[in-house]
Give the backbone structure.
Amino acid sequence: NAGVTQTPKFRILKIGQSMTLQCTQDMNHNYMYWYRQDPGMGLKLIYYSVGAGITDKGEVPNGYNVSRSTTEDFPLRLELAAPSQTSVYFCASSYKGRNLSNQPQHFGDGTRLSIL
Amino acid sequence: KQEVTQIPAALSVPEGENLVLNCSFTDSAIYNLQWFRQDPGKGLTSLLLIQSSQREQTSGRLNASLDKSSGRSTLYIAASQPGDSATYLCATNPGGSGNTGKLIFGQGTTLQVKP
C-alpha cells in the first residue's frame, strides 16, 4: 500500500521562484494536512482540508496556498520562495466519520526544500 | 493558545532499560493526544492515540498515559532496544468548535539506546 506519497523528495529553489509540492493519498481519507518542520523543532501546521473543495489556514499559512479538487490530492504551492521557507514539508491524512473519534494521522516521507 | 513541551530534548540509555518520555501541554481542552516516532530522514509513524476520555493506551512494549487535569502525558518504553532509537514526538488535538484533527506538536525527544 502506498499510503501518503509526496513528490519531489528534494528540491533547491532560488529566491522568488515558485513551485508546487505534490501530495496524494490512496486511503480514501477525508482529512489532509500540510506541516513544516524546521531543524530541531516540532511540526507546525500550514494548511488543512476536511474534504474536497474545503481548505483552511493553520498556524503558519503566509507565503503558501493550497487546493483540494479531489479526495486524493492536496498540493501545496509556494508563489515567491523566500529563505525563511527552507524547511522539510510533510503531508498527512486521516479519516474521521461523523460522530466518530479521530483516527491517527498518516504521514508521507517529506519534501526537503532549500531556498538559496 | 495550546503549547506542547517535551523534556528532555535528548536521552541516552543502555539497552534493556525501561524509560519514560514526558510531554506537557498548557490547555487541558483536547480531543486527543498522539505519540509519534520519527526516524532520521523519514516521516512520522503514529504509535499511540489516546482519546480525551481515556487514561492510557498500550501497544506491545509501549504504554502511553494521559492526565488532562495536570496537562501531562507520558510514553513508557519497556525493555528498550537499539531499534527504539529515534525521535519521539507528542501532539495534541486541541479542543474548540469543530474537530478538524489539527495537531500541535512538541519539539520531540531524541532517544538513543546503546547496545
In short: Chain B touches chain A at residues 4, 9, 31-32, 34, 36, 41-46, 49, 51, 89, 91, 93, 99-108 (CB under 8 Å). Residues 23 and 57 of chain B are 15 Å apart (CA to CA). Chain B has no helices and eleven strands.
